[in-house]
UniProtKB/TrEMBL annotation:
It holds the Pfam family adh_short. This is D-mannonate oxidoreductase. One of its GO terms (molecular function) is oxidoreductase activity, acting on the CH-OH group of donors, NAD or NADP as acceptor. Coiled coil: none annotated. PANTHER family: 3-OXOACYL-[ACYL-CARRIER-PROTEIN] REDUCTASE FABG, SHORT-CHAIN DEHYDROGENASES/REDUCTASES FAMILY MEMBER.
Length: 282
């Protein structure tokens, strides 16, 4: 099946952060298949290069740029290169993000004795770990937007797509920082949509449910490949009783980027979750 459902993004320049990763690598390939020139940004140069190479091998136009979404200088350097090599940015996908084990509690519920126990309770959470996660997800969306959305002002049909998560609607146990940071992304998506509404830049987000990627595979599967207890809980809370396939985000991705399809849509966060966010558990 074609990844891009026949959507035409030719003539557009798309900048995708975190594009060396599983979900955003696929976003980059899908947008390239739809005809856009794609700037593949990632901290991991090799991963970004691989995605760009795959796009070029499939007949698309892409270039990889080693970029840290947390460093303004790195973003500015990449912006100058993208402008010279591909052109001004029409589409920005803020995909770089994720959690960090230093910002997690060991257990779901706090119990008497946990302060003394050899576990990470709420009281032991590492401030630097929490800051890392807030920065990666929130500042890592805000800074690229400051740098690349300037290209969009006074040009028509430009869009920004942020990546939120299920934990933004209702926090998941054990991951307070990641949940709070993604809630901030959903909130920022609405704020930015309103702020940019008079200059025609649409800003939306998708909120993926559970997809197996590099960042969560250790939480979801044991070393021998068997599912963890958390996987059992996730699947029990997902009415469709399975993980999502990355390709299943494509329809929402293309809908939100396509001005003909979603020209009056701005400030929304669309769940793609097999029913997770609709299900009360009863
Ligand atoms: P991933 O780990 O495969 O990809 C994340 C990419 O971001 C990696 O290639 C990494 O090198 C890059 N990155 C990390 N820090 C960076 C930095 N400072 N600057 C530039 N790049 C950096 O993870 P993924 O699951 O594909 O995640 C993509 C997005 O989707 C993230 O925002 C994540 O929070 C979100 N998300 C994932 C799921 C899921 O189930 N996998 C669910 C909801 C939301």
């Amino acid at each position: 099946m074609s990844l891009s459902f026949g959507t035409d993004l030719s003539g557009k320049v798309a900048v995708v952060t975190g594009a060396g990763g599983v979900l955003c690598g696929m976003f980059a390939k899908t947008i390239a298949e739809a005809g856009a020139k794609v700037a593949v940004l990632d901290l991991n140069e090799e991963a970004a290069g691989k995605v760009a190479d795959e796009i070029v091998a499939a007949g698309g136009i892409a270039k990889a740029y080693k970029t840290n979404v947390l460093e303004r200088a790195s973003l500015e350097e990449t912006h100058a290169k993208v402008l010279a090599e591909l052109g001004p940015c029409d589409i920005l996908i803020n995909g770089a993000g994720g959690n960090n084990a230093r910002a997690n509690t060991t257990k779901e519920y706090f119990e008497i004795g946990d302060i003394e126990a050899d576990t990470v309770s709420f009281f032991d959470l590492d401030q630097s770990g929490v800051e890392f996660v807030f920065n990666l997800n929130f500042i890592g969306t805000l800074l690229p937007t400051q740098i690349f959305a300037k290209d969009m002002v006074e040009r028509k049909g430009c869009t920004i797509l942020n990546v939120s998560s299920m934990n933004a609607f209702t926090p998941l146990t054990k991951i307070p920082a990641y949940s709070g940071a993604k809630a901030a992304i959903s909130n920022f998506t609405q704020w930015l949509a309103v702020h940019f509404s008079k200059v025609g830049i649409r800003v939306n987000a998708m909120a993926p449910g559970f997809f197996v990627t590099k960042q969560n595979e250790k939480l979801l599967f044991n070393e021998d490949g068997t599912p963890t207890e958390r996987t059992a809980k996730i699947l029990a809370a997902t009415p469709m009783e399975r993980f999502g396939e990355a390709e299943e985000l494509n329809g929402t991705l293309l809908y939100l980027l396509n001005n003909e399809a979603s020209g009056f849509v701005t400030g929304v966060v669309i769940p793609v979750d097999g029913g997770f966010s609709a299900y009360s558990g009863v």
